[in-house]
Amino acid sequence: MVRSLLIRGMLAGFLAGLLVFGVARILGEPPVDRAIAFEERLMKAAHPGHEHQDEPELVSRDTQRGIGLFTGVVVYATAFGGLFALVFAFAYGRIGKLSPRATSALLAAATFVALVVVPDIKYPPNPPAVGAPDTIGDRTALFVGMIVVSIAAMMIALAAGRRLLPQLGLWNASLAGGGVFLLLVIAAQLLLPAVDEVPEQFPAAVLWQFRIASIGIEAVLWATIGLAFGPLAEAVLRRGQRGQWSHQRA
Amino acid sequence: MSNTAVLPVVIPVAIPVREVLPWLLFGFVMMLALYFVGAEEGATSLIPGMYIHEFVHDGRHLLGFPCH
């Protein structure tokens, strides 16, 4: 059963990856190109006279925005689809009496908040030319740390909401859980160090377009995984349940 | 919701944890795939060179990972 769910999760992720590639190509590549053009202008200005001999590129721009981008987003989406299926296997039947489709949609929405909205508010995605190469280690650690804190906050909020359920009822317990999540996330975001490495003259519009594209890509990813995995999982679980019943009857 | 009348309703029965646990190994494999898209030859490096970094470069940026 878990095996079937895992395969379907990866399938939903793969499908999402194809859509994400389309969105990334159409909305994401223009600001990436503009950021790279800015980076090149900056380099020329830094070394005037020294005619910028285009060093042989390891990977051409066409490859980067073509098969490279495709591989990156599809592997990412398929891997997250698989992880999503595993989390679903734990969550299903344990967060209220939600149907597989509702569980999948709710879980994907929660994942989008915990994995994208919260970390991106503190450490927003950056186009090329933004970010000093020597701080990459720290920035990656902070980014991953923010995600870990965000997921932990969501689990604590879920446990708190669950605990308050008998006294407060579903609506108010959910609100209380949401409040706990917000408090923990805000506290963490205030405590963690800020990162601002946007070059002085970097065009604000390009930065905005890039970040909106990046968050839009993640929104498409999680909406697709959440909505596509639900019906697939429902079919697996219905079959599994029937199997279980006939097994019990036998 | 017209199909709920036709199809038998699935009663949410949790999958026993011991059935899910062995599959977490695959979760680790997925994380490794995410690592190669997101951080290899950037923050840390397992394979020498910059080829993977440059190959997935645009995706890495657009998926929100810190990149150079």
What does this structure look like?
The complex is a heterodimer of chains A (250) and B (68). With 250 residues, chain A is an all-alpha fold. Chain A folds into two domains: 1-46 and 62-130 and 202-250, no CATH class; 131-197. Chain A contains five helices and no strands. Chain A has helices at 2-46, 61-91, 100-122, 136-191, 204-249. Chain A is globular, with a radius of gyration of 22 Å. Chain A starts with a helix and ends with a helix. The relative contact order of chain A is 0.18. Chain B is an all-alpha fold. Chain B has a domain at 39-68. Chain B is 50% helix and 0% strand. Classes of the chains: A mainly alpha (250), B mainly alpha (68). At the A-B interface, α1, α2, α3, α4 and α5 of A face α2, α3, α4 and α5 of B.
Structure at a glance:
The complex is a heterodimer of chains A (250) and B (68). Chain A has 250 residues and is mainly α. Helix content of chain A is 80%, strand content 0%.
How are the SSEs placed, and which strands pair?
The complex is a heterodimer of chains A (250) and B (68).
Chain A lengths: L1 H45 L14 H31 L8 H23 L13 H56 L12 H46 L1
Chain B lengths: L2 H4 L10 H4 L3 H15 L12 H5 L1 H6 L6
- Cα-based radius of gyration of chain A, to the nearest Å: 22 Å
Distance between the termini of chain B: 49 Å
Distance between the termini of chain A: 20 Å
Mean pLDDT of chain B: 86
Would you tell me the structural class of the helices and strands of chain B? Answer: mainly alpha
Strand content of chain A: under 5%
Number of strands of chain B: 0
Helix content of chain B: 40-55%
Q: H/E order of the elements of chain A? A: HHHHH
Mean pLDDT of chain A: 92
Shape of chain A: globular
Q: Extract low-pLDDT stretches of chain A.
A: 246-250
Q: Give helix % range of chain A.
A: over 70%
Number of helices of chain B: 5
Count of domains of chain A: 2
